[in-house]
Every structure is written in structure tokens, then in C-alpha cells.
Write a structure and sequence with these properties.
Blueprint (H helix, E strand, L loop, with lengths): L2 E3 L6 E3 L2 E3 L8 H13 L4 E3 L7 H9 L9 E6 L4 H15 L4 E7 L13 H10 L3 E7 L3 H10 L4 E5 L6 H12 L3 E5 L10 H9 L4 E6 L3 H12 L6 H14 L19 H4 L2 H7 L8 H8 L9 H5 L6 H17 L6
Parallel strand pairs: 3-4, 3-10, 4-5, 5-6, 6-7, 7-8, 8-9, 9-10
Antiparallel strand pairs: 1-2
Helix pairs in contact: 1-2, 2-3, 5-6, 7-9
């Protein structure tokens, strides 16, 4: 079994982390079944967040009465902006997860690196929670390269969660190396780049080359889980064929494309930005029929109502000109609808 030690935490995790954001969309019975199946096959790291609606509750339902708490690692996140909400979020998470402690408690995409004495009291609250045994390790998640680098340099955090896939560049690799040098755990979100990477074996093999990176794969369907379960005993290794897949995807996808992080939402005119801004890629990399349905056409027409208020661009961690990207995808979409451009 392929495992990773998560920096100074000492947590030994099976290389397939379970990303529990997508199980929000499953009913409770389905989510519990998927979580327990993952555990039965050796997956021991589960990542969720207070903001992921009922995801924490579903993890609690799956494991709370199984007597396996000492055999799994539960990581969750707080998007609290002040100390009062920090403690409220932590209390709620512990209750829903049906546990006395959280292994890795992460500040969820904060706009600053919390430090002792910075006036917010946030880092002090995390230290107090750790001293009380309510959390065991303090981490941070982010989408900003600058804040991630600052987090590593601070020496205050035990883990960093950041987008990382084979579409990542040298700047992301520098974060991985920085964590390695500081003996800090690096947790990779969006290993499939929001669904744009469709070859999970290539994704797994590429991240495995980084050695110290723990990927958390978003799981909603049993077929998705089965793919990664299949890699536990037979982990994909890099081959010329997988390398060719990666190089082809890098040529097609590297650059100004939406990573579907969702921080641009909600849109003031109701555009589903993470889907609409990726439509040019999605429609060429997955079955096109659902993306050409009457319902999806109506969703894409909302782009015509864009008032270019700038709120989406202001919140984009990747600095994209989101309205421009939406217009480009919409023009491409209309050409596909008219038959001017052919897709699968």
C-alpha cells in the first residue's frame, strides 16, 4: 500500500485521500455507503469543511458508531472571520462529525496568514483548541500563491492545502519543495483540475512523482471511488503513454482557464460561472449531449445578461478576466450549437 507521512504531523495516510466536498450531492445512505467502502479498502484520510453543507454530518454518520476513530484521519476547515465564529464552527464540526477531536483543522482560504499577536486572535484560538485536545494539527488552505508561500515561510502551520495537478507549473512545485524543506504536509486539492483531467491514472502517477504530496480526490459516485480503490494495490506509475496524455493536456489546458474553485460566486445575474467559464474545455472532454441540453442552453444564455460588474474577477484567485472568458466560451458554445464547430 502506497502511503505518505504528512510532514511533522506524523500522520501516515494512504495516498488516496477522500475529498468529501462532492458527497454533499449524494443522499445520506449513498454517502455513508461510499465512505464506509473507502475505509474498508484502506483509505484513511477524509477531508471536509464546515461550509460543505452536510458533508461533515455524513462523515459522522458513516464513522461515528463504527469504533474506527483511531484508524482514520479527519480533516475539516473553518471559514470563520473572527474568534467567536471560530469556536462556533469548531463546536458544530465536532458535533456533526461525532468525534472528540479533529486531526487537521484548517483555516479555509483566509485573506491573510493568521499569526500570534496580529490582532485577530485567530491563531491564538487555534492554539487554545490544540492545547485542549480539540484539534491536533493546525493547517491552512488557499488558492493564492503569495499567501501559500507566506504560510510556509511563517513556520506556524503544519499543513498547506493547495490546488496541485499535472497542469500545475513551477510556482506550485516551489510550494511543494518549500513544504518539504519545512517538514510541512502538502495536501493537493483539485488533482483532476475540477474535472478537466479525465485520466485518473495519469493524475495519480504525476502527483506520485512529487513524493510528499497527499492528493484528496473528490468522490461523488461509486465508479469514481472504485477507480482510486483500484490504485491502492496497483498504483499507476509513469509510462511513456501516460506522459503523452499529460503533455497533450498541458498544451490544451495550460493558461487562462477556469479552475472551478467557485470563489467568484454568486454571480449578480445568476450565471453558473464555474461551469460556463469552462464550457469550451468541458464540452470537448466529456459527453456533449448533457451540455447541449435545453436547460444548459438556457444557463449559457445568461451570459448575455452579464453587466461586467467585476465582482467575479475581483474574487478570482487566479486573476482571470472572468467576463472576457465567459464571452469567449459563449461564442464557442454557439458555434457548436450551430454545427459550425464539431465536437464528440
Amino acid at each position: 500500500m502506497d502511503t505518505i507521512t504528512l510532514g511533522s504531523t506524523g500522520i501516515v495516510a494512504q495516498r488516496n485521500g477522500f475529498g468529501a466536498l462532492p458527497i454533499q450531492r449524494d443522499d445520506k445512505d449513498t454517502a455513508v455507503r461510499l465512505l464506509r467502502k473507502a475505509y474498508a479498502h484502506g483509505i484513511n484520510y477524509y477531508d471536509t469543511a464546515r461550509i460543505y453543507t452536510d458533508s461533515e454530518e455524513k462523515i459522522g454518520l458513516a464513522f461515528g458508531d463504527m469504533g474506527v476513530r483511531d484508524k482514520i484521519c479527519i480533516a475539516t476547515k473553518t471559514h470563520a472571520k473572527d474568534v467567536e465564529d471560530f469556536w462556533s464552527h469548531l463546536e458544530t464540526s465536532l458535533k456533526l462529525l461525532r468525534t472528540d477531536y479533529i486531526d487537521v483543522y484548517q483555516f479555509h482560504n483566509p485573506k491573510q496568514i493568521y499569526r500570534p499577536g496580529d490582532g485577530t486572535g485567530m491563531y491564538e484560538a487555534a492554539l487554545e483548541a490544540k492545547e485542549k485536545g480539540l484539534i491536533r494539527h493546525i493547517g491552512m488552505t488557499n488558492h493564492s500563491l503569495a499567501l501559500a508561500a507566506e504560510c510556509i515561510a511563517s513556520g506556524l502551520y503544519e499543513t498547506l492545502q493547495f490546488p496541485f495537478s499535472y497542469l500545475s507549473g513551477e510556482q506550485e512545485m516551489e510550494l511543494v519543495r518549500g513544504c518539504r524543506e519545512k517538514n510541512m504536509g502538502f495536501i493537493a486539492m483539485k488533482g483532476l483540475s475540477g474535472g478537466l483531467i479525465t485520466n485518473s491514472a495519469a493524475a495519480y502517477a504525476a502527483i506520485a512523482e512529487a513524493e510528499t504530496v497527499l492528493p484528496i480526490w473528490g468522490v461523488q459516485r461509486e465508479s469514481e471511488l472504485d477507480e482510486f480503490i483500484g490504485y491502492i494495490d496497483n498504483p499507476p506509475v509513469m509510462t511513456p503513454e501516460l506522459r503523452a496524455v499529460i503533455e497533450r493536456d498541458r498544451k490544451e489546458l495550460t493558461g487562462d482557464f477556469c479552475r472551478a474553485c467557485g470563489y467568484c460566486m454568486p454571480c449578480t445575474v445568476g450565471i453558473n460561472i464555474p461551469t460556463a467559464a469552462r464550457m469550451s474545455q468541458l464540452i470537448r472532454r466529456s459527453p456533449s449531449a448533457p451540455l447541449l441540453s435545453e436547460q444548459m442552453q438556457a444557463e449559457m444564455r445568461k451570459i448575455e445578461d452579464c453587466v461586467e460588474c467585476g465582482k467575479c474577477s475581483a474574487h478570482c484567485p487566479y486573476g482571470l478576466d472572468t467576463p472576457k472568458l465567459l464571452r469567449k466560451c459563449y461564442e464557442d458554445y454557439k458555434k457548436i450549437l450551430s454545427g459550425e464547430i464539431s465536437v464528440n
